[in-house]
Specification:
CATH architecture of the largest domain: Alpha-Beta Barrel
Helix content: 25-40%
CATH class of the largest domain: Alpha Beta
Order of helices and strands: HEHHEEEHEHEHEEEH
Largest sheet: 3 strands, antiparallel
Number of domains: 2
Shape: elongated
Length: 211
C-alpha cells in the first residue's frame, strides 16, 4: 500500500532500514557535505541524480543496489517533502548549512506562521527577532502543530512563537515555501513576532492529521 496515495498496485522498493540509511545519506549530502562524495552542487542546490547514485555506491558497498527508481521513490513518498527531483537532478528543499539560492515559490504564503523555542530563549527572540543559527535560513512551520513537533526534537515542552507573515511580507521580507509545512526566510524582525496563546489541545482532529 502506497503511504502517499493509498494505491494497492505498487512495487516494493526498500526495506525500512534501507529507507532510513539512504535517507540519512541524502540529507547529509544534499544539505551539508556534497564535497565529501566528490559531487558538484550548483548555486540552487541541485546535484545530478546519477552522479549521486554512483558516488554513494562507490563510498558505501551496502548501497551498490541503488537505482534511480529507489531515490525517486523516496522523494515522492517523503511525508515532509524534504527533497525535489527535476530534469535529472535532485536537491533538498530545506535544512541546508551550505550557501545555496533556493528558487522556491513565494506565493500562497499563510498569513501566520509558527516557530518553536524555549522559555529561556523566548525573551531574546521577541527582543532581537529570528535569525539563522546552525542553518543558513530561518525555518518556520506552516501550522501550530508542526511547530510543536519540530520543537520537540530538542525541547520537551516548546514555546510557540507566531509570525505575522502578512505584515512581514508587506514590509519587504521574502518568505519561501519549502517542503509541505516548512517555510524559509533570511530573518524576521521582532515587531512581527508574538508568543502564541494557543494550546495544542485546541487542535481539531482535522488540523492534527493535516500535519
Amino acid at each position: 500500500m502506497c503511504p502517499m496515495c493509498g494505491a494497492s498496485n505498487t512495487h516494493f522498493l526498500l526495506k525500512d532500514e534501507e529507507i532510513d540509511a539512504v535517507g540519512r545519506t541524502m540529507a547529509g549530502v544534499l544539505r551539508h557535505f556534497p564535497d565529501r562524495y566528490g559531487l558538484e552542487m550548483d548555486a540552487n542546490g541541485w546535484i545530478d541524480l546519477r552522479d549521486f547514485i554512483t558516488a554513494v555506491s562507490i563510498r558505501n558497498k551496502r548501497f551498490r543496489f541503488l537505482k534511480p527508481n529507489h531515490i525517486l521513490g523516496l522523494i515522492q513518498t517523503d511525508p515532509k517533502g524534504r527533497y525535489e527531483f527535476r530534469d535529472g537532478r535532485i536537491r533538498a528543499t530545506y535544512g541546508h548549512s551550505l550557501d545555496v539560492d533556493l528558487d522556491l515559490p513565494t506565493d500562497n504564503i499563510p498569513e501566520v506562521l509558527f516557530y518553536p523555542t524555549s522559555e529561556e530563549e523566548l525573551g531574546v527572540l521577541l527582543g532581537a527577532g529570528l535569525r539563522p543559527s546552525d542553518r543558513k535560513m530561518v525555518h518556520l512551520s506552516g501550522t501550530f502543530h508542526a511547530a510543536v513537533e519540530a520543537g520537540r526534537v530538542r525541547i520537551q515542552v516548546p514555546v510557540i512563537v507566531e509570525i505575522d507573515t502578512k505584515a512581514a511580507r508587506a514590509s519587504g521580507i521574502v518568505i519561501k515555501k519549502a517542503g509541505k509545512t516548512v517555510y524559509l526566510t533570511s530573518e524576521v524582525p521582532p515587531e512581527f513576532l508574538k508568543r502564541s496563546e494557543r494550546a495544542e489541545e485546541e487542535l481539531s482532529p482535522e488540523e492534527a492529521s493535516a500535519d
